Amino acid sequence: MKNILIILFIFSNIVFASSFEFDFSVFSGSTFDFSYQEGNFFDNLDGFRAGSGLSLGVLLSLGRNDEINNNILTSISSMIETGYNYYKRERRGNKDDYTDQAYYIYDYHSIILGYLLRLNFHNKVSLGIGGGIFIPLYSTANKADYSFGMGDYSEMTEFNQKNIAFMYKLPFMPYVKLNVVRYFYFSDRWSFKTGGNLIYNFGMELDNDRLGPYWVYNKYNFSSFAVELYLGISFGRAK
User: Fold this and answer.
1) Neighbours of 221 (CB within 10 A)
2) For residues 101 and 45, what is the distance between their CA atoms, to the nearest angstrom?
3) How far apart are CA 81 and CA 154, in angstroms?
4) In sequence order, what are the beta bridge partners of 51?
5) pLDDT of 48 strictly over 90
6) Which residues fall within 8 angstroms of residue 46, CB to CB, at 6 or more apart?
7) SS3 of 216, please?
8) Dihedral angle of Cα 111, 32, 35, 90, to the nearest 10 degrees
9) Residues whose CB falls within 8 Å of the CB of residue 165, separated by 6 or more in sequence, listed in order
């Protein structure tokens, strides 16, 4: 109860502050996916993989906008972020097989928890840098991994948060983000915005000790680089 009251106190101070700022946006983009695996039995499945994928979702950002009096910046925004992220990636199982049957497709439905520091310039452009984590709540695969690469989980194609927390060393995907925004004002504080994100998602690594000791990859991890475009609405950033 004490922690809830502290959170409510902090939130109320942000919301009712004169420098309160919030954004709501939708985003979509392409990903460049990377994975690496070492197996116990199938050498032709080992090695580095590169693929492509998709990222989309919605994002709510809340925080403070502190005005700066100089010739470069109008203000600095400090934002906490949350929302929903859908991430789709593909992986070629056999490095020598380019048929459709050789491709695995994985979907992740995640909650976003992050932080963004944004510099707001006089030309109605902002540049932000931040980071956070994607917490997968649900994941699917287009087919089972019959190479037994995931131990007892090899025949599964649907994974809940409990499964994910057991399979991977960390049950979340850390990320870093570079963000650029252009604002189009229709009042002193309200504006439409459009922009782009460059995001590196560090992904997750299978926990071999939990999945093993037999019929598992010696090592398996993945990561991605995303290029996203987004549209949104914003309140609190002064012209």
Assistant:
1) 16
2) 14
3) 35
4) 33
5) no
6) 37, 38, 39
7) strand
8) 80
9) 171
Model's pTM, two decimal places?
Answer: 0.84
Length of the chain: 239
Residue whose tokens read 């906008």: 65
Q: Name the nearest CA neighbour of 55 among 192, 188, 173, 143.
A: 173
Residue 179's φ and ψ, nearest 5 degrees, are: -130, 135
Cα(146)–Cα(186) distance, integer angstroms: 56
Per-residue pLDDT tens over the stretch 149-193: 566 677 778 899 999 999 899 999 999 999 999 999 988 889 999
pLDDT tens per residue, range 210-236: 876 665 677 888 999 999 999 999 998
Amino acid of residue 67: E
CA distance 20 to 109: 30
Distance CA 210, CA 217 (A): 12
Beta bridge pairs of residue 155: none
Strands 20-38, 47-67: pairing is antiparallel
Q: What is the dihedral of CA 75, 78, 84, 90, to 10 degrees?
A: 90
